[in-house]
Design goal:
By secondary structure, the protein is an alpha/beta fold. The protein contains ten helices and 16 strands. Strands 3, 5, 6, 7, 8, 15 and 16 form a seven-stranded mixed β-sheet that branches. Strands 11-10-9-12-13-14 form a six-stranded parallel β-sheet, with helices on both faces. It starts with 6 loop residues before the first strand and ends with a strand.
Length: about 325
């Protein structure tokens, strides 16, 4: 069989708001500035679900293979694949193999496992950026990570702990406390926004990382120390918030937002290289909840909706 007629299994979006379909599709020949990657593992992220539901308009045509971060081999070398519009404006990575832009491929450092690297394209990059660039976490910081059992939150815990900061995690489930502590949190609070301020009275955080939004924003501003930083990178609990602006400005609080879709290609590549470096030196640790088969991709989406995930869900693509 020639390369031009090779077929692969892929998770395809045929209609927004409908389950993905596993189909056999033809793998095209690489064009100029493209390369073929044999894929092993891919990450599943909330933004993938938003794209599938049509909540994040991308302009990509349908049907389309989804998936924006994965690891595999290209020309015999272990690689991370991310960026380049994969899964958004062009076919993505939830497949056995993919033809991708060369600029979206980064070699893995020695000793970095493809399974862990598969989580770097979105979650790892986000954690690295918010901790080191926006939050600028240092050893004298007191850090609270909201949603600390999530894919990004669990990585933030490890990065902040590696920086020497005092790190607390927040979760809504007592069953997730152990996994958060294992990532490096000294203490875990099980609290919603109503209980958060009181639960943090002994911490007075200087930095709060927030992927939740909703009532957690006002509670975070109330709980933060003077000159504290609130770093927002998601609104999984709700995008509409109410807060007391007097509290914000009187405490000289900085509100910092991170949106990975706004990164320039060079900025993204540098961030991915830094994330892989942090993975290699152990300052960034990946908590993998489970590795599911490609055929279980819709189950992975549902588990995100039900908040039944601790860390990252991955798809095995080479089975």
């Amino acid at each position: 069989m020639s390369k031009s007629t090779r077929t692969i299994n892929a998770a395809r979006l045929r209609e927004h708001g409908r389950p993905l379909v596993i189909e056999s599709v033809a793998l095209p020949e690489p064009g100029p500035d493209e390369i073929l990657v044999e894929l092993e593992f891919a990450g599943v992220n909330p933004v993938d679900r938003y794209i599938a539901e049509g909540r994040v308009p991308t302009g990509g045509s349908l049907p389309r293979t989804l998936g924006a971060e994965a690891a595999g081999t290209a020309q015999g070398q272990p690689v991370l694949v991310a960026g380049g519009g994969l899964g958004a404006v062009r076919d993505g990575l939830w497949a056995q193999a993919a033809v991708v832009p060369k600029q979206a491929v980064l070699p893995l450092p020695d000793g970095v496992a493809p399974r862990d690297a598969a989580a770097m394209g979105i979650a790892g990059l986000t954690a690295l950026k918010v901790v080191r660039e926006l939050g600028q976490v240092a050893a004298d910081d007191r850090v609270l990570v909201l949603g600390a059992s999530g894919g990004v939150g669990s990585m933030i815990v490890s990065l902040a702990a590696a920086a020497g900061a005092t790190v607390w995690g927040q979760t809504g489930s007592r069953g997730k406390v152990g996994s958060i502590e294992a990532q490096g949190a000294q203490q875990v609070v099980v609290a919603g926004p109503e209980e958060l301020v009181e639960a943090l009275s002994d911490l007075a955080p200087t930095v709060i990382f927030d992927p939740l939004g909703d009532g957690f924003v006002a509670a975070s501003i109330e709980a933060l120390a003077v000159r504290g930083r609130l770093v927002s990178f998601g609104t999984s609990a709700g995008a509409e918030v109410r807060l007391n602006m007097q509290t914000l400005y009187r405490k000289m609080i900085s509100v910092l937002g991170y949106g990975g879709l706004q990164l320039e290609p060079g900025e993204r590549r540098a961030g991915l290289q830094a994330a892989l470096g942090a993975l290699k030196d152990g300052s960034l640790r990946v908590l993998v909840d489970e590795v599911l088969a490609l055929e279980q991709v819709n189950e992975a989406f549902q588990r995100l909706v039900d908040r039944q995930v601790q860390g990252k869900l991955l798809l095995a693509l080479s089975r």
